[in-house]
């Protein structure tokens, strides 16, 4: 008698435990939102980890935004619930002109969005080459926002593909940094960095990237990363 | 059995009667562990103890308690203590948007309640009441100043709210005031209470006329420089409603207010620069250590060994002097700061460690000779290799340089044991380090002197130090006056103030003939190092994003170390057993400092934004 009762109790508990879960829990977000930053349809590259995009979902009590982590190649992806979102470009954090308009995003399953930005300066025709231990890079710098001053164009060398003005190897050579005053916009800029000295010589893998910085904004806009073949 | 029942019944009846009748007196008793409102607000002594609680809560940043690691947020110092979470201060990629965030409306509510209850009190003597009300308002102005320098404009809440139900909530919402209005509120409060603080006229720890003027001098200077230099940025930081961003044209007015307050303190105040000890370096140290007859101090946060002491010395004392099983060497000054102090003969402060053609070291008989002739404030602020603290020589030596005659170069020999000896019998590694990756040994080659207690026993965790934390002192007022005067075009006057301070530091009279803004800023950095000024000064001058630009090759993004070595070269008596120095990036400091534009104003906490839809975010967040 007693045995049967406790058996039923156990069974009941198990049913409540297992069955109750369904009521309490909901499925994790399953709709991927992917996209990239683009200027005139061309992808642009930045420092990984800068805070440039936020998603808001209106209609809820809390107003905490969902921060979007943008990779250094300008792409991003977030796993979301289906619904209506507003994508905001946070002003001033990226090296581009602030556009205060929000971008409405309807997420229904896999969704893609392109976020247009107008960088102060952009880099075109970036080329890299290594000759006799000297890395030479060239590019053209284009001004997209009238009135902006160019601060510098730099050639960065790092030991990983994650490469920006903070994560890089130093000291840079004198020819790896060109102040804005010495750059003619639209003309080819040639930068170089000898790789024979330390700490470059002892690194088995090296990567290079060109960055361009406008006066007044702490972030750079970059070319794609190039793997240095020695 | 029957009798038994009767007895029980009677006992029950008596107990019931006692319970019901006795209640009256029992429940009417006053509580012995809680003070009632009328007890507190009718007695000036009781009200003062409420005030003491408020005074005790005014140090969110800097100071000796929660904010004692603040110098490691800037280029003054790095963390050389334990290898745990605090080590993140040496390895952060950038400052979080929430750094120096302050949104303490709990404290503001307590201040408001203090003021409201006191105002309502009818029994208290009018003189006591005026004094206490004015002190409460001073504290409130100070708290709003702490907020505005972190956050920009904040909601100015001047009355307490009582929650009566969910319908009430919308009426309690207060939007952020503009940044300018917050500073204006502080100024008008201070003007009103300036002459009401009679009872505390000579106090160094409670509000009086001089703390009011000192706060005005500082707050108005912050408002003025924020307005001016924000306007000069490529993209001035502003929000649509002015919560952030003071109109540039207000700068002149704020500078004038600051200068007027500073001048009143300088001409009418009972203060004098601390100059009691002819040893200029020791004098500068004693300025902070001496609590009796210290005429420089305007307002301090005091400690006493009778119950309220702090562990600042436990955390920061040189390793060889530590009196506790753990701790020591926490905040260690940087070479960047040491080199920023000029030589007294006017040469720039860069230390001569290599020959001019960079072919060899410069050899010194003793490590301390390298620092001879520096601005006395350096030795008063920093313990350099070979200098003395608590009567003991601080031995800082990273190893020996052994000459390899065959190869024609030095080999560096070192060891992980503090106080170890080399094969020749001489010292190898000093008792105070430095070591590259050890906890609680200096990583930069320097130790902190300012505010570290020289009294034996103050490094024990159970006892601690009773040094006081100076919030305002006359030296700072001189600097505020110099900056405001210079900005208002009164260069001669500004030069006088700066030269007076430099004279105390050991420079000749009128050591500077002309002044630039950069020079004034440098004096702020040197005079007020480790006093919780640098971060805020860089912010208000809008230079933080240039000084800490994330570039390893910029002068102050990395913390540099200076490591002394003893030379072992028996063949050359000119060099043998002499000392040489190596400049390097401090090994435990890995990431260059990077201050983003979003750090100029800390983020408003999410719970505040969620609770009050009228609040706007700060820019870049």
Content-based structural category of chain A? mainly beta
Task: Tell me the number of helical segments of chain A per DSSP (H or I, 4 or more residues long).
Answer: 1
The largest contact between protein chains, plus residue counts on each side, is: A-B, 23 and 27 residues
β-strand amount of chain B: 5-15%
Uncertain segments of chain A of ≥5 residues (pLDDT<50)?
Answer: none
Alpha carbon gap, first and last residue of chain A:
83 Å
Portion of residues in helices of chain B? 25-40%
Radius of gyration of chain B: 29 Å
Please state the oligomeric state of the protein chains shown: heterodimer
The share of residues in extended strands of chain A comes to 35-45%
Order of helices and strands of chain A: HEEEEEEEEEEEEEEEE
Largest sheet of chain A, in brief, is:
5 strands, antiparallel
Strand count, sense and closure of the main sheet of chain B? Answer: 4 strands, mixed
The percent range for helix content of chain A is 10-25%
Radius of gyration of chain A: 25 Å
Identify the overall geometry of chain A.
elongated
The end-to-end span of chain B amounts to 83 Å
In short:
The complex is a heterodimer of chains A (230) and B (621). Chain A has 230 residues and is mainly beta.
Structural notes for this entry:
The complex is a heterodimer of chains A (about 230) and B (about 625). Chain A is mostly beta strands and about 230 residues long. Helix content of chain A is about 10%, strand content about 40%. In chain A, the strands form four sheets. In chain A, strands 11, 12, 14, 15 and 16 form a five-stranded antiparallel beta sheet that branches. Chain B is globular and about 110 Å long. In chain B, α8 (about 210-230) runs parallel beside α14, α9 packs across α14 and α14 (about 475-485) packs antiparallel against α16 (about 515-525). Chain B is an alpha+beta fold and about 625 residues long. Chain B is built from 19 helices and twelve strands. Chain B has helices at about 1-30, 35-40, 45-55, 105-120, 125-150, 170, 180-195, 210-230, 250-270, 280-290, 310-315, 335-340, 375-380, 475-485, 490-505, 515-525, 535-540, 545, 605-610; strands at about 75-80, 295-300, 330-335, 380-385, 390, 390-395, 400-405, 410-415, 445-450, 470-475, 560-570, 580-585. A four-stranded mixed beta sheet of chain B has the order 8-7-11-12, with no helix packed on it. A two-stranded antiparallel ribbon of chain B has the order 1-3. In chain B, strands 2-10 form a two-stranded antiparallel ribbon. The termini of chain B are far apart. The mean pLDDT of chain B is about 95. The interface of A and B includes residues 91, 92 and 149 of A.
